[in-house]
Amino acid sequence: MERRSILRAGLSGLLGFFAIRQTAAAAPPKRQRVAYHLADLDRVVFALGNIQNHVDGVGGPGQADIRLVVHGPALRGFHALAAQPHIVAATERLTQAGVAFEACANTMKAQGVKLEDLTSGFIAAEKGGVVRLAELQQQGYAYLRP
Fold first, then answer.
1. Please, which contacts does 112-119 make with residues 24 or more away whose CB atoms are closer than 8 Å?
2. Which of 80, 83, 120, 138 is the most exposed place for a label (fewest CB within 10 A)?
3. pLDDT at residue 1 tops 80
4. pTM for the complete prediction?
5. Where do the domains of the chain lie?
């Protein structure tokens, strides 16, 4: 009788292990949350390309929560009157794909621009770009600086 109990317990444990393993394997992957940091004007096109590749790599729009925080000289690349057409197009395409664009309020003040002076889709990082990046990291966003 004792052998049967041990055999049943062992078999139950083994089946339970496989059931848990199967359930864990069936769980959907966690949605990526990523904060891109852009400060260098000469990296604007490169960063936008990286973000497009990221959107495509996760399966298209809406599959990841992606934020681009822009401060310093890089913000000049998004001044609406001076922005290159391919930057405007990329910004619009990525905004439609769900990417959030955040402009450092300190940089905007230093450059004398308002949100309406930037390419469409920007919101202000009121406490500053670096503070916003730290907040996003505290919220679990991965930090990338292309």
1. 113/75, 113/79, 116/80, 117/79, 117/80, 117/81, 118/75, 118/78, 118/79, 118/80, 119/78, 119/79, 119/80, 119/83, 119/87, 119/88, 119/91, 119/92
2. 138
3. no
4. 0.80
5. 1-28, 32-144
**CATH, domain 32-144, list 3.30.565.10, 3.40.50.1820, 3.90.1300.10, 3.40.1260.10:** 3.40.1260.10
The pLDDT of residue 98 is above 70: yes
Residues 6+ apart with CB under 8 A from 146: 36, 38, 43, 46, 47, 50
> Between the CA of residue 39 and those of 18, 49, 56, 130, what are the distances in Å?
49, 15, 24, 10
- DSSP string of 7-35, one letter each residue: HHHHHHHHHHHHHHHHHHHHSPPPPEEEE
